[in-house]
Design brief:
The protein is an all-alpha fold. The protein is built from five helices and no strands.
Length: 143
């Protein structure tokens, strides 16, 4: 199960970097830094378009016409980011090696002091460590 999860996260990471390359290349083409008449630039551009058009197409049909602004890459980029954040587990490192907590990103609830034990002022649940970290919270308030 972990290997399937890691494969899916790797696919999302690859899609993320391909989309970033496509966005940057579109800016460079629009600002005339890159020229589509150069064969290598044209091949890379058309290759990226052919890879990403099946993803962008359905979103472009749903989004309203914004004139010259294409918001489909932004919507897909946010969607990939959310899938990576929601799907990341505390055991797997992210792209840059940091550890993630998928539920702690959305779930911050301060528990009553009696849930933490005697002498605690408040308690934050840390889901991948255990029920709570009362001492860390108390030390944080003392500083």
């Amino acid at each position: 199960m972990t290997s399937i999860f890691q494969i899916l996260m790797l696919i999302l990471d690859v899609v993320w970097f391909i989309m970033i390359a496509h966005i940057i290349m579109s800016w460079l083409i629009n600002f005339q830094v890159l020229n589509l008449r150069q064969p290598i630039v044209a091949q890379i551009w058309y290759g990226l378009n052919r890879m990403l058009e099946p993803i962008y197409g359905p979103i472009r049909r749903v989004l309203p016409d914004m004139g010259g602004i294409d918001l489909a890459p932004l919507v897909v980029l946010i969607g990939v980011l959310l899938k990576r954040r929601l799907g990341a587990s505390p055991q797997t490192p992210g792209v840059f090696g940091q550890r993630r907590n998928n539920v702690g990103f959305f779930f911050e609830k301060i528990l009553p002091p009696e849930a933490c034990g005697p002498g605690a002022t408040s308690c934050l649940p840390i889901l991948h460590v255990g029920m709570s970290c009362c001492r860390a919270v108390e030390q944080k308030h003392v500083r």
